[in-house]
Amino acid sequence: MKVIVYEHISGGGYAGQTIPLSVLSEGFGMLRSVVADFKAAGHMVTVLIDGRLSKLNPPIDADYTVPIFYPKEPEKFLSNIAKINDAIYIVAPETRQTLQSLVELTQQTGKISLNCESGAIGKVADKAVLFKNLQNNDFPTPKTLVLNNNDSIVQIKQVLKRELNYPIVIKPADGVGCSGLSIVNKDAQIEKAIAKANAGSSCTHFIAQEYVEGESASVSVLSTGKRALALSLNKQNINLAEPDEVSSYDGGIVPFDHPQKQQAFSIAQKVVESFSGLRGYVGVDLILAQNKPYVVDVNPRLTTSYVGLRKVASFNVAEALVNTVLKGDLPAKSKNHGVSIFSKMETSNPSIHAFQKAAKLGAVVSPPFPLNDEGKSWALIIGEGNSLDAARLHLEEAKKCLHNIIT
Length: 407
Known about the structure:
By secondary structure, the chain is an alpha+beta fold.
């Protein structure tokens, strides 16, 4: 097929704005990885690229690239170039209904959408709706409150004091990753945590949850829209910060060896199957607590864990995604081979020469783009091995190599 792949951060979604470089490392890493897999499966690929990135000749194996320089251009180009392509795959955040609106645009072109259906995206993108459905279906979740932004701080504090014990987690109702996320340990932090949650949100409400002690993990799932198959359990390296600081997703391990793996697989599959129209690639975020896994989020899109999964899977995950959506065929269950560890790495702002040299390193999934005047950038790097220790060793070697190039 002729496939358009649009990743929002690197593809022009921030045209006219400052690109958040830490998030860009994840976005470009996913774009580069899934494009390589579509190409390996024999498809012809067109991508949209922010003009500031395209000038740097970034390492991406697409057949055609469309540079984007102005706001709203991505939507216009997606509609226009859809006419000469067969299918479209969108990677975008759920915040402010970005993913849902882009998938609706895709559906309006009459071309094949490889994403979840837009209605299903809406059901899981708003965490208030998501948790209501999860609780109605008896899935284990942290105790969750949906609180109104129009209520006074005094009212909100009263509700929290009555319903939850510290520490608590406050987050936006339409957030992605760790955006707007805070851990709150006392009353005095609540107002700042709410402001942080609402800063990038379009919702009139926010979420407060009990804090569950355990391992942060996700399950990568493929789904036909009715039947789901868990592909891997992934460790998530999460830095959960207080309201004055920034919470962050720093990378992960695929696969994650944990006693609750099969339980997590079963829950993730059932969660995805409970939402009609969740199809293709879906990520289910969990906390692996002492007694059982708790569901904390459902991502109706490609997730950063894909960059690690593709390295250990015994099949082409992008091609399996296509077969799942178009034919309703899930891949045969198979074991993953080896371990991959991927990590975001802060660097100083590289020279153009250093950027180009870093982009050629096999362990660099996303090179540090020299795009700002703050003197720093971010890369996404990966270490692979037959064991966890070997993968860690290769990751550390990659960090040293990249550091030497940049400095």
